[in-house]
Write a structure and sequence with these properties.
mainly alpha, 18 helices, about 60% helix
């Protein structure tokens, strides 16, 4: 085994043993659970899978290619225009209730965005809301053809890419918090830009000069977001997702592959062999789902680009993909209160359930419990940290 690989594996082993320290950085008060310790003890069983994570370059990238393809955009349009009821149409109708998707939405770009530890201040809220608004308007334009939505999305993208210079830190906020905020926000901004730039072969008319300015904005976000990938909890997943998204949009194989490889490394560290999801026992019912949402969205992105291995990744002699095992474990906690935490008073986090069901049904894999939880929670809405409305984009009616 090459020295660099050995070094990396020793680092992964040490990280699995020191989750409590990682939480001190995040301000989460994380304490290592028995399952965390077991994961550290059993990390050797995952060495082969982690060491074999290296991806191949995928250029030319497929566009649109973050979470929706041109074919999927056409499918959404057909579902919305149909007189028949469908999960996708129901999800889209809920999306229409979000006022941020209106062409009358009032955006406000800022030169700097103040990051607030473990909370979120008004400037963060403005930045996130404007990102969602750009995405929803871009999606609505692609589905309905209303050029007012197209124009609003472009206005928001141009305003922020022209004005934003960076993040600042509120008193008591550590610098890494900006890494996480950038990791959460980058895929949302990129998803909007990807549609505006590539829908129907560039029909929006977003000029090369506008695209260049947005690339500069994206690079500023990437410089923060990629640092989050060094963590071995939901931060690492978020950072890896952001790296992949930037790579696709910028046709940058190095960025994409770095994120993809990190995501594949994260899967056995996030989902233990029992199916338990990291942070479920020691924290709550929603932080583990940050990781599940990030992996699901990465799995869809990678599938669009021709690699389904995030969905199908197995460890050792396992017959069920490790990520699928984590989804089922989380669903049982939500539906029946089983496992290390009873989450019956909670639901599935928005933005990933229909993506995950679609991804596994396309691979011929049925997740009975997760599918039941998904149907119970439909249609999903917006997610505070990730792209939401997965029923609108990936809802299906064959289960």
């Amino acid at each position: 085994m090459p020295l660099t690989t050995k070094t990396r594996l020793r680092t992964l082993r040490r990280n699995a043993m020191t989750l409590a320290l990682l939480a001190a950085w995040t301000g989460a008060g994380y304490a290592a659970s028995p399952a965390d310790t077991a994961a550290a003890d059993n990390i050797d069983a995952d060495i082969a899978a982690i060491a074999a994570a290296d991806a191949k370059a995928v250029p030319p990238f497929k566009h649109p290619g973050i979470l929706v393809t041109q074919t999927r955009l056409n499918t959404i349009r057909a579902a919305v225009q149909s007189s028949a009821t469908s999960a996708m149409k129901t999800g889209y109708n809920r999306l229409l209730q979000d006022t941020r998707g209106s062409h009358t939405y009032a955006y406000s770009a800022l030169a700097t965005v103040e990051v607030v530890r473990a909370a979120g201040g008004p400037q963060e809220g403005r930045w996130k809301n404007d990102a969602v608004a750009a995405y929803l308007n871009a999606l609505r334009w692609a589905v309905t053809g209303d050029t007012r939505n197209r124009d609003k999305a472009i206005q928001i993208l141009d305003a922020w890419s022209s004005k934003f210079t960076g993040f600042t830190l509120a008193p008591g906020t550590d610098a890494p918090q900006a890494w996480l905020e950038a990791a959460w926000g980058l895929p949302v901004w990129v998803s909007a830009a990807e549609i505006i730039r590539h829908h129907n072969g560039g029909e929006a008319g977003w000029t090369p000069a506008q695209q260049t300015r947005f690339n500069g904005y994206l690079n500023k976000l990437y410089a923060q977001a990629n640092q989050a990938s060094s963590r071995t909890n939901n931060w690492g997943v978020s950072g890896a997702l952001a790296m992949m998204a930037a790579g696709v949009y910028q046709d940058d194989a190095n960025r994409y592959n770095a994120g993809f490889n990190r995501m594949k490394q994260m899967i056995p560290l996030i989902v233990y062999s029992s199916g338990e999801v990291q942070e479920l026992q020691a924290r709550d019912c929603h932080h583990p789902q940050y990781s599940l949402a990030g992996i699901a969205q990465a799995g869809e992105m990678a599938s669009i680009q021709g690699d389904t291995s995030l969905w199908t990744h197995t460890i050792g002699g396992e017959t069920q993909p490790r990520f699928a095992r984590g989804l089922e474990y989380m669903a049982k906690s939500i539906l029946y209160g089983e496992g290390v935490r009873d989450c019956r008073s909670n639901g599935l986090y928005a933005g990933y359930s229909d993506i995950a069901v679609n991804g596994y049904r396309n691979r011929g894999i049925t997740l009975s419990n997760f599918q039941n939880a998904t149907k119970r929670g439909r249609p999903d809405g917006i997610a505070a940290e990730f792209l939401g409305y997965s029923t609108a984009t990936h809802g299906r009616d064959d289960y």
